[in-house]
Amino acid sequence: MNANGDVLDCDSTRHPGVFNAARVSLGALGVATKVRLQNRPVYRLRERQWIAKTEELLEDLDKNTQENQHWEMLVVTHSDYALSIALNETTELATPPIPPDEEGGNEFVTLIEKIDKYASDFPDLRRTMLNNLRHLASFDDRVGDSFDIYANVRTVRFNEMEYSVPAEHGRACLREILKLIPDKDLRTWFPIEYRNVKADNIPLSMFEGRDSSSISVHQHYQMDHHNFFAAIEPIFWKYNGRPHWGKLQTLNAKNLQLLHPRWHEFIEVRQELDPSGIFLNAHLSSILGVS
Q1: Is the pTM of the predicted complex or chain greater than 0.90?
Q2: Which residues form the domain of 276?
Q3: What DSSP line would sit under the chain, residue for residue?
Q4: Which of 2, 13, 26, 221 holds its CA 20 to 30 A away from the CA of 139?
């Protein structure tokens, strides 16, 4: 429903321009009153987790992404290791559910937090302790329905900034971030998430027109994230990164339109559907460059 109250039925043949733009609408085009999705039946996934050296995982990045249906890693800052997670479809029987406090690596995160609390003033000791976590942490394979395995329970609150850079620059971008943290003595303990995502054709998508590496940096909600994110964000800019629309970032329309090849296509659709800016707020006005 647009600003005039007109209801548009949109798909790839009816109002295709609106349909394409509405797939990442940011709430700026109107109100979606009904959505029809093409889904597949529920299927089973096997989740396998293991700890390995970050550099080894980066060297095996192509292998890990090609041989697994889904793959990502959580890099433990101030250490040489990361938690690697692979998901693959299976017909095996489901395993028993795990306790909520252990789901999504929460138990692992709690250990890292405690080490930071007591050893952050001793960098060498902290690195040694974090590296030795690989001897303590063990992860059983988990099999379950796709909607259970994909979802995670997050019991630790945090602020997050995520950018997607061209896949060919993903390794270099992550390495530069990991080098900056100790060089600038940036206080953080939360793991950094890294995964690859295939290109799509959606205006304003982080992945429009290019395979990408998504890198997420986090900060515990009780710790100041402003200086931490401010130090890291220019590295994303250096590698032509596009920010996640739903997470913290500081770019405005002047910068963002250079990152999205179909920017003006979206802006034209927005102007047509809502010329008076009924659906805009201060944030949308800033990132879209509309008063």
Answers
A1: yes
A2: 16-39+253-288
A3: --TTS-----SSSSSHHHHHHHTT-TT-S--------------EEEEEEEEEEHHHHHHTHHHHHHHSSEEEEEE-TTSSEEEEEEEEEE-SPPPPPPPTTTGGGHHHHHHHHHHHHHHTT-HHHHHHHHHHHHHH-----EEEEHHHHH-----S-EEEEEEEEEGGGHHHHHHHHHHHHHHTT----SPEEEEEE--B--TT-TTBTS-EEEEEEEEETTS--HHHHHHHHHHHHHTT-EE-TTS-----HHHHHHH-TTHHHHHHHHHHH-TT-TT--HHHHHHHT--
A4: 221
